[in-house]
Design goal:
Number of strands of chain B: 5
Chains: A mainly beta (823), B alpha+beta (155), C mainly beta (156)
Strand order of the largest sheet of chain B: 2-3-4-5
Helix content of chain C: under 10%
Number of helices of chain B: 3
Largest sheet of chain B: 4 strands, mixed
Distance between the termini of chain C: 10 Å
Shape of chain C: globular
Shape of chain B: elongated
Oligomer: heterotrimer
Largest interface: A-B, 88 and 69 residues
Strand content of chain B: 35-45%
Number of helices of chain C: 0
Structural class of chain C: mainly beta
Order of helices and strands of chain C: EEEEEEEEEE
Distance between the termini of chain B: 28 Å
Radius of gyration of chain B: 18 Å
């Protein structure tokens, strides 16, 4: 909307700061400035001779009403003196220029200008052979950093830094200074884009709020996470939770954020995040610690303990030290080697749920990955060595197998239409031979504490997949017949094996696959627009010799032993339209899928001929098996269904900001939908968000609901969320996720965001299903965690606290995209 | 009723050389996509100069959202999104696609008893999604009407 | 230069009109007056003498008139020009008016009116009231000869 000039253009009191209100800006300037600001600092254009030269290489030109030029080269200029030296301009009532000493002394209403810098003052001394200048009683503006303020004394160092003594600094619009920093000494480096301040007082609405002995902050880039402003929240479980982050820019390539944190019902701890960027490696290290956790204020846990459950099981972390270590590193930019480390370890499974890290952005799920990987990349070959383990964040389960190490050697050669791909993989699956866990089986019955022990078979696995294809592609279609040889062999630790089980079971298969498809098109018309419609039939066939994998089942004495069916990294792919064209139903490498089959799929797309974008794409297809015996994860199935489920998928993007997607998996023999979802995502340039989602997954199991009726346990969940701007500054946001199966709300989220030019405040109320005691409590009587979270971000000074933002990004789809758009 | 086999594309005809670069030096997407397309028989240029089309990936983001939870309130199904912001210039320097967006969505059923195998599935899905992403980018590059007005093109 | 005073004065001009009664002689037609390192070129030069025949005042006019003199051995000569240049011998002062411009070793001063005291090498510049302003330009230090002393304190 074009901002119209106010009826009578009111007097612009801040023109002396080069401040122009929005309606006086050019369209380009208006587009470049943040929507929530009401104007911008715009320096007048420098169109005078030598304006682009560096001062000490440019002639010093002075004009005045009158001047006295002494023999020693000094001159006294009087009356509206204007001096230019390259890109630097000086204005004053009186100027004495001493060319031999290379200085100019200015007095009376002085003004110094340089690209993106304006300083006004009462008097100044400027060195004509360098950038140095000293200004008394200064008022300054750093235009592109949107920063201004005043100081008793401002000096510009030869290095270009602006140092203020007894000065102040703000990024707010003139006249609407929500926050201002007062400092004994503040120095702003507009080249390095950072500032340093000593014995500093932060005032919000002229009320002193914080005192910092020493502070570094970003200049100009509001996105940069500078001094993270404290985040304050209060919840039943933790009580008051205050975290005060300090950002420390150690070196141009290295910075750290240290966050001391006080949690009322747990104690005081701290988090630290160190980031380092080098030519070859980018490393992020996160550490968090909370010594001697007081256990939090968990009423359900107290009831359980009162009912006689052992405290060390209900509150295992009480009185213990809680810590987290997270290392993420990427290495080897663009060269022939790459490394990747993603390692997280926490002191106990409940770490994330209890401490809900105030500032760390480590995603909390049911496990954390501990992976380190290095790969060498040749033109045709690639070798990857990986160590992978997971730490489980649930208490009633045994550890998983770790891959210490896994080596993949992949080769790809192409001669014309012939393609040879070679996959060689060796993995060593490790686990403690025997593990014991203790957990509460039934929260209703105190003596249901159980202890269970299990043995684990460790194994070395070799998997080879060699495939020769004739990959022929035309504009109108493609055909890709391939011959593949697959081998799978194990070397098992025979400690727990049955005597008759072989400790080196193996299987192999020769396979022929055919992947072929055609592309039909036609031009069509609908809703007054013309578009191109495509029809893309596709066929995928697989014929395989019988890979006798019967040795892989039930190899251990005790069928409950870990690894008894030699399943280490294999499960069934999530069935979808894409599954039709994969050469195996199994993920990982523990099974060779030797079921002969033909899959038929059809895709149609409606394409906008101008932008080339898919307005709508729909696909449907099914797999047809030739016989009914089929290898599965834990057995060989005799009477398997002749056809797979029908898989359908629709994705539509009628306009750029709206996406509608849906997937259906339909069992046409039993006439059941086995899996289905629908999602609508809307995000536009005015930062409006609207989301709808429904997710269904059939389960053939039942449970007794609250009224004692037998209820189908299939997953039926819906969510909706929206962010609606009320005006240029205020937006209301809300989100809800509801579980129709258990008739319980999963998460309610409501809040308001006030986004002003130099600060943003968010107040969010959240009520979410608390799955802390999930392993201890029956699903229906899981409790809720409710809390109000306030977060204030001072743009240009304090970066974004991640608690509230993390919550909103998880609760509202595309919220993180909106953050990026809004900057 | 008008159906015909797909003919020659408007741009990026078969045999034209493509060069892929990424703005973020840390990301391996440029090498991965180049290797993927080489294996698919697409002629890849060694440097931007010899390329008929120059694809620049400004930003690649991989996102993962919990979309449904199990009885214990833990993640049961994830939605994986791989998206890219990219631009394409032809050898004469003309910009065919400027800051265009492409994204691929996939569902991943999760089971906290099968963490290792489901983690493997996620890794395989991400690879498939990158393959789908580059084929969507190329498909759009082939179909875009270069002389259409700018807002139509980015519509 | 010091020695200029003792040098003979040579004058070239197209026409000379001497007028005994007013002790003024007027040279006109691209007049050139030289005395040692001093040189005045103008379209018309009035030389006013006193009763005893010594020159008291010289007024040169031209579009513009030029004045040049070497102040010291080491320096390049000071050049000045203006539509009207008046040189008063007694006070050894130069009064330039009308687009006055002085160039001293590359540093220049432009103004409506400049008074130049040749002894103290001090200049006073006046802008015309209103638009005409004084302009001074100091050439940048060349990196190599930055220690070249220009304008050290020097008194006649």
């Amino acid at each position: 909307a074009e901002p119209t000039a106010p009826a009578e253009p009111d007097y612009n009191p801040y023109l002396y700061l080069d401040w122009l209100p929005k309606w006086q800006l050019t369209p380009e300037q208006r587009a470049a400035m943040p929507a929530v600001c009401s104007g911008a600092f715009v320096a007048p254009p420098q169109n005078y001779p030598d304006a682009s030269l560096v001062p000490d290489e440019a002639p010093l030109r002075a004009t005045a009403d009158q001047s006295k030029w002494l023999d020693d080269g000094t001159a006294e200029l009087r009356g509206n003196v204007q001096i230019t030296q390259g890109y630097r301009q000086l204005f004053a009532d009186q100027v004495d220029v001493n060319q031999s000493e290379k200085t100019a002394y200015l007095r009376g209403a002085i003004e110094i200008r340089e690209p993106s810098l304006l300083v006004r003052g009462a008097a100044a001394e400027v060195h004509t052979d360098s950038k140095a200048a000293a200004i008394e009683d200064a008022t300054y503006v750093v235009h592109d950093a949107f920063v201004h303020g005043s100081a008793d004394h401002a000096s510009r160092e030869a290095s270009g830094e602006l140092t203020l003594t007894q000065g102040n600094y703000t990024r707010c619009e003139p006249g609407k200074e929500f926050w201002r920093v007062y400092g004994g000494e503040i120095s702003i480096d507009n080249v390095e884009r950072q500032g340093v301040a000593r014995n500093v007082r932060l005032e919000v609405l002229d009320v002193p709020v914080f005192y910092f002995p020493y502070m570094r902050f970003p200049v100009g880039d509001a996105r940069l996470s500078g001094l993270l402003f404290p985040s304050i929240s209060n919840s039943d479980k933790n009580g008051w939770d205050v975290a005060i982050p300090y950002y420390w820019n150690i070196a141009p390539q290295m910075d750290a954020t240290i966050v001391p944190r006080y949690i009322q019902y747990r104690g005081t701890g701290a988090e630290a995040e160190v980031r380092h960027l080098s030519e070859v490696f980018s490393t992020e290290l996160r550490l968090a610690g909370l010594p001697n956790d007081k256990g939090g204020n968990d009423e359900d846990a107290r009831n359980l303990i009162r009912d006689g459950f052992p405290e060390d099981l209900v509150l295992p972390a009480k009185g213990k030290d809680r810590w987290l270590l997270n290392l993420e590193q990427l290495g080897g930019t663009g060269s022939f080697w790459r490394t990747n480390i993603d390692y997280t370890k926490v002191s106990d499974p409940d770490f994330f749920r209890d401490l809900d890290t105030a500032n760390l952005s480590v995603s909390a799920e049911t496990q954390v990955s501990q992976m380190a990987q290095g790969s060498l990349l040749g033109e045709h070959w690639r070798a990857t060595l990986r160590a992978q383990d997971y730490q489980l964040l649930v208490k009633d389960r045994f550890d998983v197998y770790s891959q210490l190490p896994r080596l993949d050697i992949d080769g790809d050669y192409r001669w014309g239409d012939w393609l040879l791909s070679m996959r060689n993989q060796v993995t060593s699956w490790d686990h403690d031979d025997t593990q014991t866990i203790r957990f509460i089986r039934d929260t209703g019955n105190p003596d249901s504490v159980t202890e269970s022990t299990r043995n684990f078979v460790t194994a070395e696995r070799l998997r080879l997949d060699y495939e020769l294809s004739w990959d022929q592609q035309w504009l109108w279609g493609y055909i890709k017949p391939s011959l593949a040889a697959r081998y799978l062999g194990y070397k098992l630790d025979d400690k727990f094996l049955k005597p008759e089980s072989s400790d080196t079971p193996e299987a192999s298969a020769g396979q022929f696959t055919l992947d072929t498809g055609l592309f039909f098109e036609r031009d069509s018309q609908a809703f007054g627009r013309d578009y191109v419609q495509t029809l893309e039939p596709r066929l995928f066939a697989l014929v395989s010799s019988n890979a006798d994998q019967s040795d892989f089942f039930d190899v251990t004495e005790d069928p409950l032993d870990g690894g008894s069916d030699l399943l280490f990294d294999t499960s069934l792919f999530t069935f979808s339209y894409d599954q039709l064209f994969r050469n195996s139903r199994f993920t990982g490498s523990d099974r060779i899928d030797d079921a002969d089959r033909v899959a038929l799929g059809l895709t149609t797309r409606f394409i906008d001929p101008l932008s080339g974008r898919d307005l709508l794409a729909a696909s449907v297809g099914q797999i047809f098996y030739s016989n009914d015996t089929r290898i599965d994860r834990s057995e060989i199935v005799e009477d398997a269904a002749p056809r797979s489920e029908l898989a359908a998928r629709v994705e539509s993007r009628p306009i750029q900001s709206l996406r509608i997607g849906s997937e259906i998996v339909y069992d046409d023999s039993e006439h059941n939908i086995n899996r289905g979802n629908f999602s609508l995502r809307y995000l536009d340039d005015d930062f409006r968000i609207f989301n709808l989602g429904y997710y269904y997954q059939r389960k053939n199991s039942f449970f007794l609901n609250a009224d004692g009726e037998l209820t189908d346990a299939s997953t039926k969940q819906a969510n909706a969320s929206a962010v609606l701007p009320v005006n240029a500054h205020t937006s209301v946001l809300a989100g809800a996720a509801y579980d129709l199966t258990y008739e319980r709300e999963l998460e309610y989220l409501a809040g308001v965001e006030y986004d002003s030019c130099c600060y943003r405040a968010r107040l969010v109320w959240r009520r979410t299903l608390d799955n802390d005691l999930a392993d201890v409590v029956a699903p229906e009587d899981l409790k809720y965690d409710e809390g109000v979270y306030l977060e204030i971000q001072l743009k240009g000074l304090a970066g974004l606290g991640t608690t509230v933002t993390g919550m909103l990004s998880q609760g509202i789809a595309n919220f993180d995209q909106r953050e990026v758009l809004k900057q | 009723c008008g159906w015909h086999l797909r003919g020659a594309p408007k741009n990026f005809p078969p045999g034209s050389q493509l060069y892929i670069s990424a703005e973020d030096p840390r990301s391996d997407i440029a090498e991965e996509l180049t290797r993927l397309l080489q294996n698919a028989g697409l002629p890849m240029a060694e440097s931007p100069l010899e390329a008929d089309y120059d694809l620049t990936i400004h930003k690649e983001t991989e996102r993962k959202r919990t979309v449904s939870v199990d009885a214990q309130g833990r993640a049961a199904e994830y939605e994986l999104i791989t998206s890219a912001l990219y631009s394409v210039r032809d050898s004469s320097g003309r910009t065919l696609l400027n800051n265009a967006q492409a994204d691929v969505y996939r569902s991943l059923e999760w089971n906290s008893n099968e963490i290792v195998s489901k983690g493997e599935e996620e890794r395989l899905l991400r690879e498939e999604m990158r393959r789908e992403l580059i084929s969507r980018i190329i498909d759009r590059l082939r179909r875009i009407d270069v002389n259409a007005p700018a807002e139509e093109k980015s519509y | 230069l010091q020695s200029d005073r003792e040098q003979p004065i040579k004058v070239q001009a197209k026409k000379l009109e001497a007028n005994r009664s007013t002790n003024m002689s007027v040279y006109s037609g691209n007049v050139v007056i030289t005395q040692g390192s001093l040189e005045i070129r103008a379209d018309r030069v009035e030389v006013h003498g006193n009763a005893s025949g010594e020159i008291s005042r010289v007024v040169a006019t031209g579009k513009p008139a030029h004045f040049q003199q070497q102040m010291q051995q080491s320096q390049s000569p000071v050049k000045a020009r203006a539509r009207r240049i008046e040189y008063t011998v007694a006070s050894d002062e130069l009064h330039l008016s009308g687009d006055a411009h002085v160039d001293r070793d590359g540093n220049t001063l432009t103004a409506e009116k400049i008074d130049y005291d040749l002894n103290s090498e001090q200049m006073q510049a006046q802008g015309q009231s209103g638009e005409g302003r004084v302009e001074m330009i100091w050439k940048p230090e060349k990196k190599d000869d930055s220690q070249q002393a220009n304008g050290t304190q020097q008194n006649q």
